[in-house]
Amino acid sequence: xxxxxxxxxxxGSSSFTTGSTPFGFFDTDPLFQQQADKFAKxxxxxxGYPVTDVELRDIxxxxxxxxxxxxxxxxxxxxxxVNNLINTMGVQTGSAFLQGGSLTGTVTxxxxxYITKLSKAYGTEADSGGxxxxxxxxxxxxxxxxxxSIREAVSASLALESGSLSNSSxxxxxxxxxxxxxxxxxxxxxxxxxxxxSQQLLDAFDFGGFSPSVSFMMMPIHADLLRLQAIEFNxxxxxxxxxxxxxxxxxxxxxxxxxxSGSSASSLHYDKVWFxxxxxxxxxxDAILFGNTALLNGVISDASNIPYTYxxxxxxxxxxxxxxxxxxxxxxxxxxxxxxxKYSSIPIPNAEVTLNGSDLVSQGQSEKExxxxxxxxFLDKLTKEQMLTRQNAEATQMNEILGKVPLKIYVx
Length: 412
Hints:
Layout: H1 30-46, H2 58-88, H3 97-100, H4 113-125, E1 135-140, E2 147-149, H5 150-160, E3 171-177, H6 198-204, H7 221-238, E4 243-247, E5 250-254, E6 272-279, H8 280-286, E7 287-290, E8 293-296, H9 318-340, E9 345-348, E10 351-354, H10 357-380, H11 384-403
Antiparallel strand pairs: 1-6, 2-5, 3-6, 4-5, 7-8, 9-10
Helix pairs in contact: 1-2, 1-9, 2-9, 9-10
């Protein structure tokens, strides 16, 4: 539209066309198109037309109507965000969610999606689930060699899976399966009737000749636990215990691997050590851990990216449109006041005419402030917190009323 056209001030009627508003958010809405010209006439008559000229054009009235609708949507969406942010945090938005999708006009129920996503991130760190794939690799032990390369073991493992290890990949070791053999494998079961003096005990009670003789013996559980603990302490204190150390790319194992060749050599304790790991890059795709807080990418995080868009004009009820009309008239008054304020007075023969520009600006600003306050007070009553409080008060009052209802007395 050419704003430089020399057209007269408000002529008393107009004809709305698409593109007449600055942003065009509602230009294609049938109801907006229908009511735009009616609003222009409505607002013009509120500021004095046809008794006085109105120094505005049709586009000024259309702009006021669009601005009022935007303000109404903004106020309503603020309450929607307060009500629904906690239930939508963590919902993935995607690259075009804000353009192609919206929560406007939808009912948002209770959801644990955000908590679930956080728990997955925590689960990855706590070895209790999570969404990151764990992989396994094996270190082939060489007799006499304690230190091995983690990256070489991972690379060899990936090669078996038809993969390769990138030089930039960061490996995070999650578990090394290098433990001493369980003590139970070196503990004679007392219920077999042999070892640890069990058979002698059975013979002393003349039970040794029975089959199976262990049917007459019941050993306390703590006796087994004490023996297992004694075996484990013996290995830990008196022997080179099964352990490892990780420094950078190196992993070092104890006890020192030995070979069975030679008269003085001991038998080989172990020939392979498996470990489980993950790639930090894969963990960072969904959740980056910073301290004790999980940060999720590409999701609703706060009020700035929760996808609420402007309310469709046709879906706004009569109460909302009434507020929009009043707010639009206040904008028109303020706008007309700025126009008339360019010249505070106009000279005429033997006198001058004083314009009411400052009065219109002040009146328009006061009406806008009062309307926003009125709407905010109304919307604040509709937050979930306030509605639950009111519902609780109603239930309490109802119980009090029902408590005053006389009870029937049944005579049998």
